[in-house]
Amino acid sequence: MVSPLQYTPIEEIQTIHDDLGKTFRAGKARPLVWRQHQLRQVLLMLRENEAAIVASLDADLRKPVAESLFGEIALPAQRAEQTLASLEEWTKPETVTVDAWQQPWNPTIYKTPKGVVLIIATWNFPWSLVLSSLIGAIAAGCPAVLKPSEISAHCAQLMGELIPKYVDQSAYRVVNGGVKETTRLLELKWDHISYVGNSTVARIIAAAAAKHLTPLTLELGGKSPTVIDAAHTDLRLAAKRILWGKNINAGQVCIAPDYILIQRDYQDALIEALKEAYAVMEPNGALGSSTYCGIINAAHYGRLQGLMGRTTGQLVMGGKADGKKFIEPTVYKDVKGGDALMEAELFGPILPIVPVDSMQEAIEFINDRPHPLVLYVFTDDAELKQAFIDTTLSGTLEFNDVIPNVAGLPFAGVGESGYGAQNMKYTFDEFTHNRASVDIPFSTKPRMSKVWSCEANMYNIL
Ligand code: NAD
């Protein structure tokens, strides 16, 4: 397929950067009413272009319509609406309670926009990822360059066409391109960079940001383990929930359950439950189903096929592919820690089952590997839940289901899965500087205190 994507000329990138700097310094992006208007424009764009957005996702991913409507349109729209509803509260200067003798100094934290930000996103939720960060930047009063992934080329092209029609171009610009264009962007000085993608490129981004001491938000991925304590869980319900979560976007989700750890004796019962759940979810099989997503491109399709060819695990469900775009949900049992399927994040519809002899072994297995973005644990054993809370580390810890993302909670990696948090107010916070301020009255006659008298002596003012 010929890419529809028109890249931004490299020589324009410096000008775009400088123009946004001028907009920021002129204070244009700061007034609350202006920010609110931009957020309403994002909502309008989503409302007026639903069919075109769904078509762009179909062209890139063959994303099912329901998944596009929910994950790529309703979700960012809900974020824009909730941000609109909360913006006044978030941006209010925060008064701080301090020692009584300092209270007359009016200690205040001003929610100050950091400046011009760079937003680099990936292809699995092309619209949602770019727009969620854009909403946060608008809310914080920061002009932004948006760099969608060139891999989801139809979406990136449409973003380049639509976004300038709805939000103020002097503050928000789409730069399209690949490595060359992103490299040029990274040479420039930004006031914050938000990057969503893999941890190899994250290191390139972090090194470039370090040159300018630019703060970063890194939303990365990794292998999110799913532990099933089969003795204390409803196995059929767990299977249904895990398969549902794994099937979204054909497993191309940063928080997809990557692999299962389960007590060895229950492995076969789990496989039966997964097959039962699959038969209900996709009675005619996933290949060719209108509710099942495709693999983004030939390179990723080939990567997944390669892994399926190299694993020594035993194929127990699925395994078929259409030779081009679709791979059905595929489960392997008796997968070992050193297997090909355990080398890196799968980011596709393959689910390896790694049997363990105990929950302690599951904990050690997880702790022997980089900190995952999410850790899922199915159990109703309170002591075991506590053990996972106390002895493991992951971006998020979720018991007894997969995927759900709660608006009031931070979405954040840790270690290899990233740093900095996103999600509504947390995205706003990433782009906001907490500017501490005191205003000491000329008339202040501070009460004596140990600290003050010490400072006062130092400055020789008593
Ligand atoms: P990708 O290849 O689209 O890369 C992401 C961005 O980085 C793109 O905009 C691309 O142009 C840019 N890029 C690529 N190579 C570059 C280079 N050498 N220098 C500068 N920029 C470069 O996407 P990907 O990295 O394959 O994305 C998949 C990963 O993203 C997975 O690991 C997934 O788990 C993760 N992810 C994380 C989240 C999250 O919120 N934590 C969400 C979605 C995806």
Bound molecules: nicotinamide-adenine-dinucleotide
Q: What is the count of helical runs?
A: 15
The total beta strand count reads: 18
Measured by DSSP, the beta-strand proportion falls in 15-25%
Overall geometry: globular
- Order of the strands making up the biggest sheet: 10-11-12-9-8-13-14
Helix percent reads 40-55%
Secondary-structure content class: alpha/beta
Termini separation comes to 79 Å
Output the radius of gyration: 25 Å
User: Segments where pLDDT lies below 50 for 5+ residues?
Assistant: none
Largest sheet, if any? 7 strands, mixed
| Overall pLDDT metric | 95
Features:
462 residues; alpha/beta; seven-stranded mixed sheet; 15 helices; binds nicotinamide-adenine-dinucleotide; ALDH-like protein
Protein described:
It comes from Artomyces pyxidatus. By secondary structure, this protein is α/β, with parallel strands linked by helices. The protein has 15 helices and 18 strands. The strands form 4 sheets. The protein has a 7-stranded mixed beta sheet with strand order 10-11-12-9-8-13-14, with helices on both faces. Strands 5-4-3-6-7-16 form a 6-stranded mixed beta sheet, with helices on both faces. Strands 1-2-18 form a 3-stranded antiparallel beta sheet. β8 (225-228), α9 (235-247) and β9 (259-263) form a beta-alpha-beta unit. The model has no long low-confidence stretch (mean pLDDT 95). The chain binds nicotinamide-adenine-dinucleotide (NAD).
